[in-house]
Amino acid sequence: MPQNENAAAGVNYGVIKPFKDLMVEVGRRTRHLCEKRGVFILPTVNGHGVPYEYRGEGNPVWVATKEGLGNKAWIAMLLNQLGYPDPTGQFHMGGIGIDTFRMGSNDNAAQGAQSVILTDEVSCGVDEFFGTAPATALAGSFEYACVIAGCSMGQGESPAYKYLMQAAPPVKYAPSLSVCVIGIVPPTARYISGEGVRPGHIMIGYLSSGLHSNGISPIIRRVPQLKDGFLTPLNGHTVGEECLIPTRSYSGLVEALQNTGVVVDAWLPCTGDGIAKIGSDERFHYVVEHWLPDEKIPPLFLFMEKIGVPRRSLADTWNCGIGYIAFVHPDQVDSVMEVSAKTPIDGEEGFYEPLVLGRVEEGPPGTDFQPWKMQLPPPGKE
User: Which of 190, 225, 260 is the last residue of a domain?
Assistant: First the structure.
């Protein structure tokens, strides 16, 4: 049969549909996960949305976060294109769905919400991506993220944007990923607005797993200039593999503290703008007295410094080892530290590692980052 007009234009539904079917199957297998939080996905025939209802007690707060992965998938596809083997058999995509989901779920948790429904968009500039082994592995990584979090995958979208998207060379094509993650706060008393933070509050930081999913662009800008590029050895493997370590989840940490009655007045995901993001609430001045020693900072960040990134740019670009920050009243500090250190990390071995960073003060907006002797203005206020 001759190609139809859509296929001739580079959008072959016959190529894309198997991936769509696979993601629908992921949705089918995960649709009941959200029921433990009183949320039920309703049956629908040929539905293009996700109908759901709450069957728990009371009237909960709902939180929805829209997030995108950024350029991390470009690195995964580059390693595949170079023929660099992935010992997990997941074509370097095993963490990409996890990253995308956790970008949204960690933001939800900052409001005290646990994520219950995920909707996604996986788009690419060429339709052939959807028929590849990396695409199949990507679907599996979304499912793994949902299972760990007890979240159901709902309706998604998988378009081919031939006339909009083109990957930067030498990568031939790479998917763009985004999600909307719906979270629930039952009971409403667990909702965290951040408005309760005052001068005198203590900042407690939690270790990151590595790069997470922010600051990828400057890495892609610099690393290919090296002799071995993303295959440069680092920390027992390569720079590319170090970039692809999945984002850590902090949802279980937030829930564990809620379940024990410990009060956290605000949470801050340390995503874009790195350490400087601490000062994003411009009501106060922030004094950071303690940070990780260099030997505990993920090696990718110090590697970037070694190849020419100034340390100040480390501070206002990457998380530099602290992925999440709690703002707590001084009388809650001991309890927060105790519960945190006993809480297993979602999907990982080991427990969360809390570190008292400093305090909130009256004063001009910005962060006094004493370990590196820097004054960091709020993001966007250079």
Answer: 190
Percent of the chain with pLDDT over 90: 90
Instruction: Indicate the DSSP class of residue 246.
Output: P
Of the candidates 29, 54, 44, the residue with the CA atom closest to the CA atom of residue 144: 29
Q: Which of 157, 190, 223 is the last residue of a domain?
A: 190
Distances (CA, A) of 306 to 130, 195, 222, 237, 341: 38, 40, 11, 17, 32
pTM beyond cutoff 0.70? yes
- Which amino acid is present at 206? Y
Q: Which two tokens stand for residue 19?
A: 């991936």
Q: What is the pLDDT of residue 107?
A: 97
Sign of CA dihedral 135, 137, 141, 147: positive
CB 232 within 8 A of CB 226: yes
Lowest mean pLDDT among 154-168, 234-248, 324-338, 360-374: 154-168
Q: Are 171 and 245 in contact (CB under 8 A)?
A: no
pLDDT at 47: 67
Helical segments of 260-310, H only? 299-306
Mean local confidence (pLDDT), 283-292:
98
Q: How confident is the model at residue 10 (pLDDT cuts 50, 70, 90)?
A: confident
Q: What is the pLDDT of residue 2?
A: 59
Enumerate residues 6+ apart whose C-beta is below 8 A from 75: 92, 216, 219, 220, 230, 240, 243, 244
Same domain, 12 and 73: yes
Q: Is 92 helix (H, G, I), strand (E, B) or coil?
A: coil
**Counts for the chain of helices (H) and strands (E), in that order:** 11, 15
Asked if 170 and 33 sit in the same domain, the reply is: yes
Question: Which one-letter amino acid corresponds to residue 370?
Answer: Q
